[in-house]
Amino acid sequence: MSSKSTLDDNPKKKPYPFWLGGVAATIAASITHPLDLTKVRLQASGDKRMLASIQKTLRTAGVRGLFDGISGTWMRQMSYSMCRFWAYEESKNMLDATAPGAPPWKLGLAGSMAGGIAGLVGNPGEIVMVRLQGDFAKQPEKRFNYKHCFDALFRMVREEGPSSLARGVGPNVFRAVLMNASQLASYDFFKASLLATPYFEDNIYCHFTASFAAGTVATTVCSPADVLKSRIMNASGPGSSSTLLTLRTALATEGPLFVFKGWVPAWVRLQPTTILIFLTLEQLRRGVEWGRGRGVEWI
């Protein structure tokens, strides 16, 4: 195999298990959870600066407070992320975009298709994650006080009705389309472009550079939808699920730049997350190949 081969250079071989992407994303998100927690609290609460928000969390809840809502993160990754990686590979197969150097528009379309599907499937987990992460940033009387992700899911259905699981689904799907079209597709594009030069091999340096570029693109493209999603999902009460009302109110009180609130922690979080996801996925796929080579049929 050439040193410049990619993960998908052999479309005829047996596909990898659909859950690999979800496992890789869960591992990465667990490591970067404190940064994701800070991003959500900047977007949905009165916290103003990244470091000040982290210090506030440490002061009020200790180091364990940096991992508030971790079960919601796991639920989200094993629903949304698992679905998006599976759907992205399936979409690339449908569009004949699995070969290295596939046209960027095909990669972007495959990412958009995957994002639309994953955004719908993962919406309940997204709400649970946002609420668990943002709870302790609120005043005590306004907290949901969920025990864990399943308690949050059951209580939402019981107290707010099944329709609560679709809260913010519009901006969430929109954001998921943007994220996958920008992160997954641009990662493939940047990686293929780097490998086409004489300066990069298919190794950690190439993965890091492609991930860095893809993470910056994805953070900027997704910030507006991400901020709206966090605010709508973290709210409750009549009228609080209206995207237009939320947008109008924020524009009137904070100005148009509110859509980039939390960009720095989002960027800081997305860079290591993107790198960790793809490095972990590479290792998991190699593990699958190793197991299949030794007769393990279930993978």
UniProtKB/TrEMBL annotation:
Pfam families: Mito_carr (PF00153). It comes from the Eukaryota. PROSITE patterns: SOLCAR. Keywords: Membrane, Mitochondrion, Repeat, Transmembrane, Transmembrane helix, Transport. The keyword Transmembrane applies. The keyword Ribosomal protein does not apply. It is found in: Mitochondrion membrane. It is a multi-pass membrane protein. Its main location: mitochondrion. Solcar repeats lie at residues 12-94, 102-193, 202-287. Belongs to the mitochondrial carrier (TC 2.A.29) family. This is Mitochondrial carrier domain-containing protein.
